[in-house]
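Quick board copy: two proteins, each given as sequence then tokens.
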Amino acid sequence: MRGTVWAVANQLGVVAGTPAELLSALLAGPPRTVRLGGTGHDAAEVAELADVLREFGHVRVVVEGPDDQAPARKPGDDEPVDTADAEAVCAADPVRVTAAYESADDECGGLRGAWLRAGQSLIRDQDPARRALVLQTALPPDADPRVRQALARSAAAAPWYMERALPGPVAALAVLPGGALVVADPGGGVRVLPDGVRQQSTATRVKAAAVLEQDTVLLLDERGRLHRHGGTGTALTKAVVATLARHPGTALAAAADVVLVGDRMGSVHAFGSGGLHQAALHSGRVTALAATASPSLAVRTGGTDGAVRAWSPAGSGHGSTVSQRPSPVVALHTGPTPEGPALAVAWADGLAELHRPGRRDVLTFRPGPAIRAVAVTAEGALCVGTEETLIRLRPR
């Protein structure tokens, strides 16, 4: 069943691992048509999922038969997949691998758990090296070292090198001026890596984090209220706290002496010593913000309209479009690297992008689970946070 759910979720641009999660994602959006079936999918699983989706009447379900234009099967396609062989599962048909792991009891050195955790990414059409990279990031801490080594060999041709994957939920990420990574978890705790101890900051669920000064981290909770972690309260932070108590925010960023907040109407508000600057930049809710202060304040904004825009509070107008996809933006971060400022973007369909200065090619990564936060380190690495893991990737 997982393989069918993942395939439909990819078709619809959402992240879901179970029929209930898929239905929840569909009910949150407008009525639409869902196409199920096709070559490689179990007919009984397709019929079961169709019944679940039709029950609520919010979607139109079309069940398709096998694809007559599907490529001819090759010798060996019907042979059992060796689920304990890391290199073999990366090269095999992902639908068959998923079915094999669903029916298996052996954890195969950690491969089974990793595949079922990251399967929505793995089931996409891609080369074995990318699958190996995704499996690397999803392995449990107690995975067999031989499995790790085999995946590292297979992932050598991927565009990323996995530096580390730390277990634990991530709600928001930020980077201190010195380069240390700030990790906020859903429970309101904050850690400064690599060696920081978790400190409880707020009792409410964290939605976004931003660094205002060397020792001041600002947190936006799920109710749109602002909290300060560390540092000393200033007239600026007190003014923003008071404003968001009356008008909740939906996104947060900070740079130099400016705090930026997004709202549900698509506007961005920049609070600073020079006054308040604001602009209507998106159609729908502002979902993510990022900012850098050097050489001048530069802001990146993201929204439910799928647009990433560049904006300067000192300028005017609606900014310029940096990127546009048919999926809401869920997280942004921009920061200095040895080559210049880089931009990380995360989308609601599970895709992370790294836009590097002076490069037209955009590096992408899909961990499988939904992405909650992204950050660019001072060395140019990409950090990706999910509800299960913090992943650090370095471009090759």
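And the next:
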Amino acid sequence: MQTHPDYPQHLAELPHNFIDGVGQTGAGKVRTLRDPATYQVIVELADADRSQVAQAVSSAGHALPVWSDTAPAIRARVLFRLAGLIEAKAGELASVEALNVGKPIGQAKRDVQRAADYFRFYAGCCDKLQGETIPLGPDQTALTVLEPIGVTAHILPWNYPVSTLARGAGPALAVGATMVAKPSESTPLSAIMLAQLGLEAGLPRGAFNVICGPGEIGEALASDNTVAHVTFTGSTATGRKIMQSASKPIAGTTLELGGKSPVVVLADADLDAAADGVVRGIFFNAGQVCAAGARLICARSIHDALVKKVVAKAEALTIGHPLDNPDLGPLISAQHLARVEGFVDRAKSEGLTCAVGGHRACPDGLTQGAFYAPTVFTNVPAHSEIAQQEVFGPVLITQICDTVEQALDLANGTAFGLVAGVYTADITHAMQFARKVEAGQVFINGFLQGGDTVPFGGVKESGIGREKGLAGLAAYSAAKSIIINHRDAS
């Protein structure tokens, strides 16, 4: 296939790593990045090695007193400028994100705008991080001041590189901390571009570093003795390794891990609205979303009617090259395609009913692409692998309930607890479900229709800590207590 006419230009000119305000060629393995829609080579980059990890952390450490002592109002101006530069470069950033990740360009543009919005939101917080006074009596005054935690590490996923980076970098930089980001080895391009824009916006050299490479590089970063906090988004298995690595420097951790999110639809729900929410929740970004609504749990009386609507909408989704803005782009890689296909094949071998999809897709002219058709399995037993494990692809399962209590039991019946949704006209049932479901975020009558100023994070094997909104500032700041004794010495 010929190069797509909207391919971003000059990718070969990007630095491989960004350390102390300077682009560096990696000293590690040379990695080939490919367009997952065509398997065509995009660019080759060299990974960082462990010495460059240490260099990046050292650079962040040297920048820490410079940035933390910068007046909050000045820090705010820098982050506001960074938000503006992201918006000015939005077209280029979105094209790179779409091509590198494989997500439709419309979704990539939304992610870039979200990145700008994160920096703008946290810029507004810089001069509002206030301490408190604590009454101890007439002879003492106690007060707290919020200080930056120190050097922070941000280990990023491949499905939302630019927006996930911004949601951690924004609050870290706002409180005066400095950072080293380690993007996924599959999708490092937008992170490097953002670091360059940060320097242009006025961040001091070393405040925002990017090192690229595989998991070993992330583990080396998390275990560096200078790192005070590690923020990680990715699989539960890798999250456990990151926690172990972070135990070496006794660093704090924020972990946003896997999910198998339930969407419950009760008999009195608006079926059209529910079908729209279910389809959006599982097929957005080809299902490669931690919060994807992978389990549809619905009342027996409406199951077949709702499945019919969902299947019809799934069949109508367009599939194609991400720069052509289809509904679904490719999966991230041929390896991930094989993983998703393995889940589906094993489900079929169990005798489960596949109502639609269940096979690779091949849009016109894209025979080498990692495309998978939107897939729905119906009436899946709760113990089935495909009901319990995160597929991370465009694969939905349905389960049937006869009571609200049974729906709740099914919703809580996995090791995960990231997001949940419920559709019902009965607000009492909705609130009972929201209070009792094991999830960090619950949507009522509008799955994944929220905002990035709302705290986000999971329970159980979906992680620890909260990101987004004002809650996102907590991980990057530490309260210092100061007690003044002013008794009369005489």
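Board note added afterward: The CA atoms of residues 268 and 424 lie 6 Å apart.
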